[in-house]
Amino acid sequence: MASIRDVLTANGKEDLLQWMEEFWLGIPSNEYLWANEWNRHGTCMSTIAPSCLPAGSPSGFDASIYFQKAADAFSSVPTYQFLASAGIEPDRTKKYTLDELEAAFKQTHGFIPALDCKNKELTAISYYFHLRGTLMDGTLVPLDTLKRGNCPKTGIRYLPKPN
After folding, report:
1. Phi, psi angles (nearest 5°) of residue 116
2. How many CB atoms are located within 10 Å of the residue 67 CB?
C-alpha cells in the first residue's frame, strides 16, 4: 500500500501535505497517524464508485479528497480564537465550568462541540458537521455535538500546550 504522503503527492496535493506536516502531527509518526485516520474515518467516507470519479483519476484520489475535506474542516474551526474571544486562554491554574466553555463556543462558532477531559483537563474538542452534497464538491455544515463529551460540570482546566 502506498503511503499517505505518496498518495497526496500523486494527486497534486503537495500544499495540503505541507500543511499536514505542520498542523496534523502524529505519534509515533505523522504517517502512522494519517494512515490511522484514513483507515478509521476516511474509508467510511470513501463510498465513491470508481465511475463517479473524474475520468483518469489517479489511485488514491478519494483519499486526497478526504484529507482535503478534513483539513478544510479543521481550518474552519479556530478553537484557540473561539475561546480567547470569550476570555478563555490556556492557563495552568484557572478553572472553568462546562457551561462557560460551551457558551464560548456557542457565541463565537454558533455550535457546541463535544468536550473531552482527562483528570479534569480539557484534552479533546470534537466538532460535528453534516456533508451537504457529494464528498468531492459538497459543503461541510456545522452542527451541535451529537454526543456530549466526558468533561465534568466544574473545575475544568485548559492547559497550555507543552513545549
Report:
1. -115, 145
2. 25
pLDDT tens for 90-148 read 999 999 999 999 999 999 999 999 999 999 999 999 999 998 887 778 899 999 999 99
Distance CA 132, CA 77 (A): 18
Q: Where are the beta strands (DSSP E) in the chain?
A: 114-118, 121-126, 128-132, 139-143
What is 41-64 written as a DSSP string?
Answer: IIHHH----GGGSPTTPPTTHHHH
The span from the CA of 12 to the CA of 21, in Å, is: 16
- Please give the helix or strand (H or E) that residue 48 lies within, else none: none
Residue range 48-60, pLDDT digits in tens: 566 667 777 778 8
Task: Answer for the pair 73, 127: CB distance below 8 angstroms, yes or no.
Answer: yes
* Whole-number Å distance between alpha carbons of 50 and 58: 11
User: What's this model's pTM, rounded to 2 decimal places?
Assistant: 0.83
How many Å is the maximal CA-CA distance in the chain?
56
Q: What is the DSSP letter of 85?
A: T
